[in-house]
Amino acid sequence: MTQAVMTSKGQITIPKDVRDDLRLEAGSKVMFVRLGPREYRLVARTGKISDLYGVLARPGQRSLTAEEINEAIADAASESGGS
Question: What Rg do the C-alpha atoms of the chain give, in angstroms?
Fold first, then answer.
């Protein structure tokens, strides 16, 4: 089990083996997710927004314009009784 020691300023250096496993590098962000009393999970936020490029692509289907998307949202809202 890997351990780290907190400084008087509340800082912890994440050990190298953990950084490597989580693919953390300078500037990476981490989240602390509370699981219960005195228990947290460290979650690496290493993805970039550019990694999402094309994730919603559908071969053979053209992309919608912003205007078409807004129109579809407005239509769905009016059908559901929204304003």
Answer: 22
> What is the pLDDT confidence band of residue 9, given thresholds at 50, 70 and 90?
very high
Containing 7, the helix (H) or strand (E) segment is none
First-residue to last-residue Cα distance in the chain:
55
Residue-range domain boundaries for the chain: 50-79
**Digit-coded pLDDT (tens) for 48-70:** 777 777 777 788 888 888 999 99
Tell me what pLDDT residue 82 has: 59
Helix (H) or strand (E) holding 44, with range, is strand 39-45
Residues listed for the chain? 83
Side chain identity, residue 43: V
Q: Tell me which H or E stretch contains 67.
A: helix 66-79
